[in-house]
Amino acid sequence: MSKKCILNTRVEAEVLSPSHVYLEKLHSSSSSTSSTTSTVLQELLTTGSSSYNVLLQEEEERGGGEHGGGGSGTPKRSLSRRWRPRTSAKSASSAPHRKKRPAAGAPAPISARTIAVLGNAMGLSQRPTPRSGEKAHTRQPACSKLPLLPRSGVTHRVDNGRRLCILAAIKPSNVEKEKVKFFKSDFTYNPQFEYSNPVSPLVLARHSNASGRFLTQAVRIMELALNKYGNYENFEQATGGNLLSRSRIWANVRKYMEKEGCVGEVMVHVTDDLLSRASMTVVSGRPTLTINISAAREHWLEGMLRHEIGTHYLRSINNSQQPWCGSAGRKRHGLRPLNPTEEGLASIHSVLFRRDPTLWRAALLYYTVHLAARASFAQLFQGLGRFVRDPTHALGLLRPRQEGPDRHGAASKDQVYLEGILNILRHREQIDFPMLIALGKVSFEDVERLKASGQTENARIPHFLQDRAAYAQQLEKIMEVNQLTDQELRLIV
């Protein structure tokens, strides 16, 4: 059952690990039995954004169909709830603006065009000084005009010609039945998933080429965490903390939206029926954030919100103002694909400011996709057992996709998280991160040539980029904790 509300308060050479040895054995075994059947492709969860959002983004770039009214992927049963805040007599926007001097050692301000931030997105506008005996208000007045985002190509045609949300299409109709069989077989049975409205093989074929380019880094990151925590469940509890109640989720989301100055703009669902941890979608032109209550942990929730709102949402808002908004505009300006930059940047923001910013989940997704390309469902499950102890949790990482039952395969789009992270870290000293957000859904490689023609006057910039020196320090911490070096990144990226 879900709940819904509108928040109106504002390198080279290396020693082969056991995982590599397993992969080599599995590869040689699969080569000799290529005629045998395996069952399904795997649809994986993501760090913060659902893995199928990558597919949606790529379909949008190709100029897909209309967005169906029920294309949020959220449950039909929902309870509506509206926050009605008390607002101060004085609007926070009436406060005087003062120029903020850059801290010593901080990067120089953005050249070319200046980004004029709306509201308190960069924390530059001073709040009104409360009078004596008057309580200071931290809430912002609701926006007079809510942003309407372009409709994405997130549907596909079924046999009767009608359009169906692809989020519904990739969900099997017999998950629970096959799950019971899988557990009863002691994890040796390969589930035979059924789909009411199968996605076109052409769509799936575009996302079925797994890579091993960053496998060494993925395995090393997981083994570092394994040595420290023992397994993923311990890592999750130690670094993520306890699960949050619905009321605490509402409170934390409200507080975060105040920081970003986007109060009243985003529809929020809290549900226990979501394929992923969280998902940012557009429903009837309205941005909608769906949060899986089983993944909302006290120390990870803000990272999830930085991922979904601070990155995906704000870049979408900024993109809607650009001349390259829409597939035709992207082609006209010769834009590169938005991924792996989009998900790489969002994934970095998921672990930003964590006490332990280990990239275990992004690495686990990359490893899983690589393994799934040469393994059946049961073999893949066994291969993940070294890193994930709880069978139910491990099964939760594997999401079936419709594909011929005689093929190995994986949703290779799920490798973009680690790939994007490593690409961005490799070029972190050259990337203008505020401009990367301001220009919308663009690759970091396109920023320099686009910033002169981009509309950045009213750009929305996340609050955590207001201190660029602190942001840069956090990137260095991610490098250090995951034992990544510039020398290694230059060799592989």
UniProtKB/TrEMBL annotation:
Signal peptide: none annotated. Keywords: Hydrolase, Metalloprotease, Protease. InterPro entries: MATCAP (IPR012548). One of its GO terms (biological process) is proteolysis. The keyword Flavoprotein does not apply. Its cofactor is Zn(2+). GO terms for molecular function: metallopeptidase activity. Residues 78-87 have a biased composition (Basic residues). SMART domains: DUF1704 (SM01154). This is Uncharacterized protein. The lineage of its organism: Eukaryota, Metazoa, Chordata, Craniata, Vertebrata.
